[in-house]
Design goal:
The chain contains 3 helices and 3 strands; from the N terminus they run ααβββα. It is α+β, with helices and mostly antiparallel strands. The protein has a domain of 66 residues. The model has no long low-confidence stretch (mean pLDDT 79).
């Protein structure tokens, strides 16, 4: 297990991060890299988290009429991280369509990249 006390930022250092870090800004030296192919997925959310559930499905059980799942991966994240992922996916899908043409599923268009919500106005003291 890596010693996180030496190089991991504490929560107060991460609290001000509001934009995704670039590849060059993250140290991947101790990361275990895995690849997962998904051809089925869903998103579930609660007040405090978003769960992305990815599946590799390789057929349909004709007796039960249910998909046959072979692998499953669940990613749990904060709603804020979910928004950053959503922006990144929307941007990448738009670039894909511009480069390669329409998506193969008819009527499916990539979402427009989301703009950050403006900060609510701060109330002045005493009002």
């Amino acid at each position: 297990m890596p010693d996180e006390s030496k190089s991991s930022p504490n929560e107060s250092q991460l609290a001000g991060v509001t934009t995704p870090l670039t590849q060059e800004e993250v140290d991947y030296a101790n990361v275990v890299k895995r690849t997962f192919y998904a051809n089925h997925g869903q998103a579930v959310s609660s007040l405090f988290e978003i769960r992305l559930v990815f599946n590799y499905v390789d057929g349909v059980n004709l007796e039960t009429n249910k998909l046959i799942g072979r692998e499953n991966l669940t990613v749990v994240m904060s709603p804020e991280m979910g928004m950053l992922i959503c922006r990144a996916l929307a941007t990448n899908l738009q670039q894909y369509v511009e480069k390669f043409g329409p998506l193969r599923l008819s009527g499916l268009h990539p979402p427009q990249p989301l703009e950050p919500s403006p900060d609510p106005p701060m109330e002045e003291p005493g009002h």
